Write the structure tokens for this entry.
Amino acid sequence: MNLGQIQSLSEEVINKIAAGEVVERPSSVVKELLENALDADATWIEIQIEEGGKKRIRITDNGNGMREEDLHLCYLRHTTSKLRSAEDLFHLKTNGFRGEAIASIAAISQMTITSRTENDTEAKWIRLSGGNLQETGTNNSRKGTAFLVEDLFFNTPVRRNFLGSDALEGSRVLDTVTRIAIANPQVRIDYKVNGREVFTGVEGSDLRSRIAEAIGAGVARKMVPVDHTEAGIHVTGFVAPADETRGKRNHMFFYLQQRPIWNPVAGKAVVRAYEPYGKQGYPVTVLFLDMPDMDFDVNVHPTKKEVRFVNENGVFLAIHHAVRNALQNEGEYGAPVIHLSDAVPNFAPVGTSNSDSPATTYAATGSSFSNDSVQEPRRRFEAPPEPIAQDLFSLPEFGKVIPLTAKTFQTPTKVDSFASPQFFHLAKTYLVCEDAEGLLLIDQGAAHQRILYERALKIIEDGSGIETQELLFPELIELSKVEASLLQSVLENMDQLGFHLEPFGGGSFQLRGIPRELPLSRAIDAVHALVESLLEEGFDANPAHDIIAKAWAKGNAYQAGDSLSSEEMAQLMAQLIATQDPMTSPYGRPTLMRMPIEDINKRFKR
């Protein structure tokens, strides 16, 4: 008799699969349990972790607590106090609702839950291992609930192997804590790492004060208030003034019905609002969206990190207009804007562009326009025709520009040909020179990154250091709590690379020394760039040196627009050729390209 191939999974396997969907890393545990504490009306929550949360996570609150019968149900799958019918999924007022979080965490850890309600004479506790009940008991714990999660992924070691270093996982936990803390300034939230206090959110703060606690007082003080309603979407919060864009995606905070979310449409809408001011990057943003329940769905991902909007174009416009109006109303920064869609009936309206963005705003700026023209256009004018662009070198018969390859440097004679070329500086970005085979174009930023990366890697690995110039007057660098935590973990490496930094309280550091070759005007930006790179890439124990070296190179390298002397251009080229991999930057971008003389001849039909 042939048995079928389809079999029912055991409860243990089902629970581990569910855990894998909900619990990706320690920060996932903290997020779910923090949200449960808020749903329990807690006004004080303490988070403690050890070894990045891999060894121990303890979250204690003063919320409503659970009765004994609820305590024995809360760790079972699909048990929840927040839903009664399927219809409730579309009218959610709580953070958690699926009844998967506690069961998923319990399935891959050793968990102890202690809880006490207002009417209980003593607290009840249960101890679980891999989701199975082991012990129960009572103690004198105060009102509220405490979750102790130990030895995360003890029974799924492969998952544990994919976790980052303690510092990286701790920074991810801190990012989760600060994002939730910003949305709940009325709640006191304390975060400790290995017994050391890292973040404190004072109970009863207003939003601006909580932003100061999480991101920095200097940033919070300058932020512009936002309050705008459009098409049933209410947008409130704060954004950076138009002259301050820090260029860091992690400084954009978006919330929907008080829940932290990330949505590319929201981010693009904010960035687009700053374009008339000539600013690039990601401005510091804290925005809250409020809209009817039926206009969005958070029930599309187990961790609730994805949100689906019924009308994404409407969300884009509401956020874009909210930020644009806030910047215009801030008299010091506001610039009058004419929207061609308002002025020209036949002009393509907002949102109907063929670009890949969800909406496009066409605007002109200039001091000759009054703000009245935004509402009442004075005259009709036609949109300018599309410029006709033609790539003169795109046809096959004219050859093509080819990237440099390793074959270029097969013989010493070809390396020697770079000894003393004459350079032309194109757009203050590219070095142009002739070699034995044609025309070379060198990206000064990518080339300098390669040079600095290999230099930094050698310094870190052999324990040497870069010569430092001490500053007569130390510079103060203000970072968010998450950034400060990461920078603290690499201070020794920073010192090797010529940056002498000392903690100065909160998220601030004093910059007391910088690499001798680096101008002071770029030193602070270099530190910010390094921290940003660490946040984007993360780092573990083994590749930490590589990540730090790449980040340091990125922050200290020449940028597009930097002027270089003839001597500097010649030195850059000579140093590039001496590197182990001169053809690419540490981030994989090409450093050089050659236009062979044969192709140039073809293009001129010679």
Observations:
- The chain has three domains: 11-204, 215-375, 393-606.
- The mean pLDDT is 79.
